[in-house]
């Protein structure tokens, strides 16, 4: 009996020492080395791909923002986004999805409402948006709630409104969207997309120059 | 180019990359676990542990090593979370409550990485980097070690010896996981994943005001999260978060990392048992199931049945624009057919059948290709069962790789395939029968049931993904999923190691005219059939109440 207790204690001791040594290797040395390389080679990206406009940081090109004024391009809905309930001395964004199922009445309703609003907001004199023109990404929330992108179709649909609100020509705004459309990587990886923050920064520059 | 074609081309590129890498990596891993030489740094580590790396272990000794290391791992990670409030470098985050600390500690040590917490508001730098990320490495290494012990059981004869656990643990970590993860982490940063130790980051917003983000060693953790088929996200949104998975290219890279070791281990197996053809038969079985699942998933997600998706014109709820439906479908299948559970899109918002495919992937026991190590040993157990079924048909004592599959071997294999479904179904039934647990469901009806079934299937199979609408941060779910994860990880390991010991002690049976040729396509077909039938019979009633009811409604 005594013997087996000693043996167990010895074994757990070996386990603990193994854990501590491997923590040193994989939990201290490894992340520090990777951080060193990352900060040396790609400091901008390693620190969050911040974007500046007018000399001021206005966000990260990778993190979608909400609350753009109606003269700007609008992002995807983000109904799954939350605010932190723990450690409330910070104001953190909680990334996340709605997790609603395809047969959820709540989801059907939010899709229908989003679609109706997009049709109404983006129909300007001389240009009427049909409900069938609205792409799926415009009326659904992303997985992270932080999707920085919209589809080129959703950007195109907003061109007439944005042009009208900013007193710009439609062709000028169309060109702006084209310039900020990223195609598939190597022609087949991922989907074509438009980064909303970068597009709106360029739009703001354009209206300032006018 | 249509999104469907682009999705198919991404799939083909991924298959091409895996085909290129699995032979050299598999052969290299076989060498890692067979070599007599120790690196200098490894010798230091063995000295620190106080273990002789050349001492051969019988199966009970090997198991004791696995259990001792894992018990210590759970306690350490539990304490780290409980003490977070007073640990420096934790950004002032408070300690995690006991039930959630227990759940998380078990979750990461068992390679499950089920998360009942929101990473960005709960875990500071120290817990993430020195606690969670460490278990991402070592739980993966433990999994591979157990698989290698089983392979040695097949390869060796007339000995009870299965190798040395400490040596397998250290070599797997140092020679396989760390180097690949380091390269992958740097690529992830180059594409935009963050890697820093700054505190909470306050930055301005376009329309004025500011937002706050966490800094952190995200890329280094992301790399091993996928490579070790762990799946626990730094952030709540997991691999959908742009700081974890910034571009379409990193998405494909992450899927590649999830699959590369499980598929390559079939080569390791082939080399170690002295017949690479036997490895190909196992590989073909895994690949067939994986490809069929990916194809089905793409079909149902592009077809987007379901009232909300019909109204929206596509199944984009819970999916990111940059990955699209194609990239999200490949990821979802790869993460649930392995024990990963990372998500780049949210399975609860997949079509009814798509959600069912992710569930079924886990129910197969995560063997196609499965988690690192656990996939291979799970598949070899199924191979033993398939051989037994074939033996029954011809009335002959079955044998596999020159070893007799007798009563003891079959009892162990049967216990292995029964334990996980028993855990998943009993815990699900208990949760539905009790008055309070169903309050955690977000959706109602069939989908609500699927949320609970998914949670316990995921926990028992050590997957870690979720139909995340379920509020799992209750005492019931924290405790019960914790138990399901513990039992679902270590009981199967007991049976696997006992089987390995029993096989290693046998003398080899010479191949004769009556031997089933397990390296032939016929056997692959038999194996695929056995897997589907056994899983189908076990889970069909539960599936009918959940995803089938929803998908066919």
UniProtKB/TrEMBL annotation, chain B:
Assembly behavior: The system is composed of three essential subunits: KdpA, KdpB and KdpC.
Family: Belongs to the KdpA family.
Upper taxonomic lineage: Bacteria, Bacillati, Actinomycetota, Actinomycetes, Kitasatosporales
Provenance organism: Streptomyces spiralis
A Pfam family it matches: KdpA
Main location group: membrane
Biological role: Part of the high-affinity ATP-driven potassium transport (or Kdp) system, which catalyzes the hydrolysis of ATP coupled with the electrogenic transport of potassium into the cytoplasm. This subunit binds the extracellular potassium ions and delivers the ions to the membrane domain of KdpB through an intramembrane tunnel.
Record's bilayer topology term: Multi-pass membrane protein
Name of the protein described by the UniProt record: Potassium-transporting ATPase potassium-binding subunit
Membrane-spanning intervals of the chain: 61-80, 137-155, 176-197, 252-273, 280-299, 374-394, 415-434, 480-501, 522-542
An example Gene Ontology molecular-function term: P-type potassium transmembrane transporter activity
GO CC aspect terms: plasma membrane
InterPro entries (UniProt xref): KdpA
UniProt keywords, alphabetically: Cell membrane, Ion transport, Membrane, Potassium, Potassium transport, Transmembrane, Transmembrane helix, Transport
Superkingdom of the organism of origin: Bacteria
Gene name, Swiss-Prot/TrEMBL: kdpA
Annotated localization: Cell membrane
């Amino acid at each position: 009996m005594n013997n087996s207790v000693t043996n167990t204690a010895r074994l757990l001791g070996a386990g603990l020492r193994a854990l501590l040594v491997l923590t040193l290797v994989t939990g201290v040395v490894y992340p520090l080395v990777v951080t060193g390389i990352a900060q040396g080679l790609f400091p901008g990206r390693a620190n969050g791909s911040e974007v500046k406009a007018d000399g001021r940081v206005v966000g990260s090109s990778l993190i979608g923002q909400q609350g753009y004024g109606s003269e700007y391009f609008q992002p995807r809905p983000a109904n799954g986004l939350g605010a932190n309930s723990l450690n409330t001395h910070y104001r953190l964004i909680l990334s996340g999805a709605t997790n609603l199922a395809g047969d959820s009445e709540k989801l059907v309703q939010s899709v229908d409402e989003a679609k109706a609003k997009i049709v109404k907001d983006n129909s300007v004199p001389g240009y009427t948006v049909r409900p069938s023109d609205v792409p799926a990404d415009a009326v659904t929330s992303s997985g992270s709630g932080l999707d920085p992108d919209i589809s080129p179709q959703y950007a195109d649909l907003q061109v007439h409104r944005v042009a009208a609100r900013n007193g710009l020509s439609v062709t000028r705004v169309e060109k702006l969207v084209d310039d900020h459309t990223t195609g598939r990587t190597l022609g087949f990886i991922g989907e074509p997309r438009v980064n909303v923050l970068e597009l709106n920064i360029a739009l703001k520059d354009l209206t300032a120059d006018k | 180019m249509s999104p469907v074609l682009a999705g198919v081309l991404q799939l083909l590129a991924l298959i091409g990359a895996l085909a290129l890498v699995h032979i050299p990596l598999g052969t290299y891993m076989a060498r890692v676990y067979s070599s007599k030489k120790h690196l200098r740094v490894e010798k230091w580590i063995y000295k620190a542990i106080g273990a002789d790396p050349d001492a051969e272990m019988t199966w009970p000794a090997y198991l004791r090593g696995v259990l001792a290391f894992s018990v210590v791992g759970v306690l350490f990670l539990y304490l780290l979370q409980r003490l977070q409030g007073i640990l420096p470098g934790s950004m002032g985050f408070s300690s995690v409550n006991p039930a959630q600390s227990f759940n998380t500690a078990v979750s990461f040590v068992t390679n499950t990485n089920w998360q009942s917490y929101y990473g960005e508001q709960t875990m500071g730098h120290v817990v993430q980097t020195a606690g969670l990320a460490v278990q991402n490495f070592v739980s993966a290494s433990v999994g591979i070690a157990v698989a290698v012990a089983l392979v040695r059981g097949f390869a060796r004869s007339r000995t009870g010896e299965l190798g040395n656990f400490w040596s397998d643990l250290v070599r797997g970590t140092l020679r396989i996981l760390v180097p690949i993860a380091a390269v992958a982490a740097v690529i992830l940063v180059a594409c935009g994943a963050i890697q820093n130790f700054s505190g909470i980051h306050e930055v301005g917003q376009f329309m004025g005001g500011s937002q706050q983000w966490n800094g952190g060693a995200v890329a280094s953790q992301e790399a091993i999260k996928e490579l070790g088929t762990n799946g626990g996200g730094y952030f709540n949104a997991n691999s959908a978060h742009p700081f974890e998975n910034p571009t379409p290219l990193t998405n494909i890279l992450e899927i590649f990392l999830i699959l590369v070791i499980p598929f390559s281990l079939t080569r390791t197996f082939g080399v170690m048992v002295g017949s690479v053809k036997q490895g190909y038969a196992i590989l073909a079985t895994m690949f067939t199931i994986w490809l069929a699942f990916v194809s089905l998933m793409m079909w149902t997600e592009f077809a987007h049945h379901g009232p909300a998706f019909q109204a929206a014109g596509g199944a984009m709820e819970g999916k990111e624009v940059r990955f699209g439906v194609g990239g999200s479908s490949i990821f979802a299948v790869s993460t649930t057919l392995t024990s990963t559970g990372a998500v780049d899109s949210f399975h609860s918002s997949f079509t009814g059948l798509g959600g069912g495919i992710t569930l079924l992937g886990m129910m197969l026991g995560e063997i196609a290709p499965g988690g690192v190590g656990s996939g291979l040993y799970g598949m070899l157990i199924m191979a033993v069962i398939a051989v037994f079924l074939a033996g029954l048909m011809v009335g002959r004592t079955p044998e596999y790789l020159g070893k007799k599959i007798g009563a003891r071997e079959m009892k162990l294999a049967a216990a292995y395939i029964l334990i996980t479904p028993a855990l998943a179904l009993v815990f699900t039934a208990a949760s539905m029968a009790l008055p309070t647990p169903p309050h955690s469901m977000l959706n109602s009806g069939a989908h609500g049931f699927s949320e609970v079934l998914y949670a316990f299937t995921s926990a028992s199979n050590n997957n870690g993904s979720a139909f995340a609408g379920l509020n799992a941060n209750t005492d019931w779910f924290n405790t019960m999923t914790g138990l399901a994860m513990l039992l679902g990880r270590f009981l199967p390991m007991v049976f696997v190691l006992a089987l390995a010991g029993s096989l290693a002690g046998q003398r080899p049976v010479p191949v004769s005219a009556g031997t089933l040729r397990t390296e032939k396509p016929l056997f692959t077909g038999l194996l695929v059939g056995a897997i589907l039938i056994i899983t189908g019979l076990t889970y069909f009633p539960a599936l009918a109440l959940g995803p089938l009811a929803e998908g066919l409604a």
